[in-house]
Amino acid sequence: MSRNLKLTLAYDGHDFAGWQVQPDRLSVQGTLVSAFEHLTGEKTLPQGSGRTDAGVHALAQIATVITNSPIPVDNLVRALNDILPRSIRVLAAEEMPPEFHARRSAVAKTYRYHIYRGAICSPFQARYVYHHPYPLDESRMVQAAALVQGEHDFTSFAAVDPERGKDRSKEGLEVNNVRTIFQSQWQRQADELIYTVRGNGFLHHMVRNLVGTFLMVGKGSLAVADVRRILELRDRSAAAATAPASGLFLVSVEY
Length: 255
Prior knowledge:
The protein is 25% helix and 29% strand. The chain is α+β, with helices and mostly antiparallel strands. Strands 1, 2, 3, 4, 5, 6, 7, 8, 9 and 10 form a 10-stranded mixed beta sheet that branches. Helix 3 (138-146) crosses helix 5. The longest helix is centred in the last third of the chain and has 14 residues, at 206-219.
C-alpha cells in the first residue's frame, strides 16, 4: 500500500547544482532519489516545495515522496541520514493524506538573506553569507524593503525561466507573476545585515533579485522610490543584478 510521506530537510547548498535533478550534476533531489533507491529498492522522485538554486541553503525544505515501503517513519529518518551525505539531513518524516503535496499545498514560505558587513569574513562563515564590507546606507535599504510588501506583479524581479513557461503551457495555464509579500524587512544583528521575506510564493531568483536591488539603494545608485517604479515597469532589465546564492536560506514552508 502506498504512503505519502512529508519530509523536512536541511541542506548546505554549496556543493549542489540546486534542488532539481539535472543530468551529470549533483542535486539535492537526485541525491534523495539515490538514497531512497538504496534503502527501499524503489525509484521514486521526491517533490520539493520549490526549486532552490545552485548554492542556496535550506533550514527546513519540505518534500513529499510516494513509497510502498513499510519502514516506520522514525526508522526511515535514521536510515536515510546514514546513507545521505552530511550536507543533507532529514529532520523529520510523517505520513500525510494522499492529496498533500509539498508545493501545491504550501500557503507561505520564508527566506532569509545574510550579508556579512565586517571587514574580514571567516572562512568558516564565507559559504553562508554574502561578504559586503563596503559602505551602505542601511536605513535606506530598510525603507526600500517595505515598498514590496503587499500584492504586486514581480516580473521585474523574476529571472527568465523557460522551463517554468513550458510547464505552465503544458498545463494550459498562463504565467502569473503576481505574488503577495506579507513581510519584507532588513535587520542588523552584530556584523550581519539580514533580510527576511515571507510570501505566498516566490519566482525564480526573486529574493536574490530583490536583494540585489536593495543593495543598489544602499549604495546610493538607486533612490528608495525607484523600487516602486521598478515594480511597476514589470521589466527584469529595470532591476539590479542578482545577489550571490551563498547568503540565501529557505527558512520555513507553511501549510
